Amino acid sequence: MSVVHRLAAGWLVDHLSFINQCGYEICDSFAHPGGVTRSTAVTSEDCHSISAFAATPSSSHDPPYGPGDAIEAEGKRAKMRYMFREEFFAISKPHIAAAPEEQLCQGCPEVCLIFFPFLFHHVMIWMFFVVVFLLILQKRKRKYVFNQGELDALEYHSKVRKLIWEGTLHLVQEGLKSGFLHHTTAKLSCRKNIAPQRLVCGLAELCEMAKQFPAANESDHQAVRVLEEETSSAAQDLLSCVIENSSNCAKIIVLMGQKYLVPPKSNFLLSDISCLQPLLNYKKKYDVIVIDPPWENRSVKRSKRYSHLSSWQIKQIPVPALAAPNCLVVTWVTNRQKHLRFVKDELYPQWSVKTLAEWHWVKITTAGEFVLPLDSLHKKPYEVLVLGRVQGDVKEALRKSEDVLPIPEHQLIVSIPCSLHSHKPPLAAVLAEFTKPDVECLELFARNLQPGWTSWGNEVLKFQHIDYFTLLQNE
Predict the structure, then answer these.
(1) Concatenated DSSP letters of 157-201
(2) Which segments of the protein form a coiled coil according to its record (predicted)?
(3) Which of 63, 123, 429, 462 is most buried, with most CB under 10 Å away?
């Protein structure tokens, strides 16, 4: 399970485990004469020369198999398993070291909150204001020490700090007890965190180029395309309709010479915000909608790698047309208070969504420390999620909310983050408590796929690239 521990404060989540449990198994239908399926053992590099594999559901009567095992019996299919590369989650040390008294857990009883909960809390508050005061004195070449946005951020942090600190501590303690976290990891490792190679993603550029494609005849328009056994697809085919993998096996698609893994029971639309009509033509209403907008900020403006949307553009996303009655809407928000206020005061009212809660995703190392000092003025080791429900037909909303737990006002999702930029932790397991089984789920501005979900974005296949995975060898 991707949820390692569930406490009153929230969840300790294993992001890597969730990815690998998605079922990245490829069914090889190529058979030798005599009806015996060929055992295929290839490396990731070899796979670029392999044609696509058949992806039909595996029989429930098939004997169990282990990772990477090939089944070589008459009438059976060989299966190869892909695993997401572990080094992307090897965050063993904080990005910026905090002072010992500021670290979450050093494995030393004398500085651990377990033994001095009240004293330590007051010391930390005192240290926080001392650090702020020293930074004010050291600020250079600024007429004003803090602008209004920074003051708002400090005020917000002071309100949520205790909840984040204490909740994370309890979840980390459970993770250390169970062995999921290892407080000796950072001490034993002499190396800095290794930044794995990042692939250049041209999907956004491809979506931009797609605007130059000749418009398809509406009468000939295909709203859905089910993945079959083809090895590659024309860009225009993938960009003009929702792609479904309805089988129980993963599939490999080739787009512009690059291979991408599509998990079973997943759907996606690769397009930008100007080409959402195929998603509307899909005729589905969603009970859960997760949104991770490309928020505008100074670093994004300076960078040529990432695009961003204005507040006006985000408002134009047709959430009301996609949402089922009582739909749960979850929006990822940066730590800029301007964006948080926009979601709660403008965006959700525009979509007839009532704000219910603010949760936080807290990023820790394998040793249980914050990846950044909790009181850092530059970046925080947490991000905000705003949860709300679509308001509409009261009777329908009551019917859908039967036997569903109410949304808690504050919860933590604590996990070791992926070192790949914007690879968010999975929400499927944590949201399952607050929805009925077998609901329709949609992620907007997605960069990866999930079984049972529809995903949309101009980089929706980004983290599905086959080079982010390792193909386990068959024996």
Answers:
(1) HHHHHHHHHHHHHHHHHHHHHHTSS-TTHHHH--SPPP-PPPPPP
(2) none
(3) 462
